[in-house]
Amino acid sequence: MSQVRRRAALSNELAQQVVAAAQKAAADLGVPSTVAVVDESGHLNAFARMDGAALLTVEIAQDKAYTAAGFGMPTDQWHDFIKDDAPLSAGAPTGIRRLIVFGGGLPIVVDGEIVGGVGVSGGHWSDDIKIAKAGLGAVEAG
């Protein structure tokens, strides 16, 4: 039926594997982190807050995953995307609810389709990116 859209989505099993791979990377780096995986619509699918991860990382990790899945681009690309556009740089961070404009959120793409997003919060955003990329390794291995 042409009036119905179908979307690919990652399974909960794969989402849990992404979380586990990211947690291992966080432990290896010595950075207690929170890892969130959302589906293609931005709804939470899998989640873990490591011992020692700050309370605020819970919301930040989920919002990073949401931003990455919702726009189909890593959160660290947002800064460059908006920095030279005065209306966008003034309005996007305060006007788009849940938007994160620093690193640690990555879209999960399978066969060219966005199937979800992973968000990591716990260390410097550069560490969060490394940990999120490690999580995506579970998708590539699966």
Structure explained in plain terms:
With 142 residues, this protein is α+β, with helices and mostly antiparallel strands. The chain has a single domain (12-141), classed as Haem-degrading domain (Beta-Lactamase, 2-Layer Sandwich). Helices cover 46% and strands 19% of the residues. The protein contains five helices and four strands; from the N terminus they run H-E-E-H-H-H-E-E-H. It has helices at residues 12-29, 57-71, 78-82, 86-95, 125-141; strands spanning 34-39, 44-49, 105-110, 113-121. Strands 2-1-4-3 form a four-stranded antiparallel sheet. Strand 1 (34-39) and strand 2 (44-49) form a beta hairpin. Helix 1 (12-29) packs across helix 5. The chain is globular. The mean pLDDT is 93.
Molecular shape: globular
Number of domains: 1
Biggest beta sheet summary: 4 strands, antiparallel
The CATH class name reads Alpha Beta
Fill in the CATH topology. Answer: Beta-Lactamase
CATH architecture assignment: 2-Layer Sandwich
Average pLDDT across residues? 93
Number of helices: 5
Binned, the helix content reads 40-55%
Strand order of the largest sheet: 2-1-4-3
Radius of gyration: 15 Å
Beta content: 15-25%
CATH superfamily: Haem-degrading domain
Give the low-confidence spans: none
- How would you spell out the order of helices and strands? HEEHHHEEH
The separation of the N and C termini measures 31 Å
User: What is the structural class?
Assistant: alpha+beta
Give the tally of β-strands. 4
What would you say about this model in short?
The protein has 142 residues and is of the alpha+beta class.
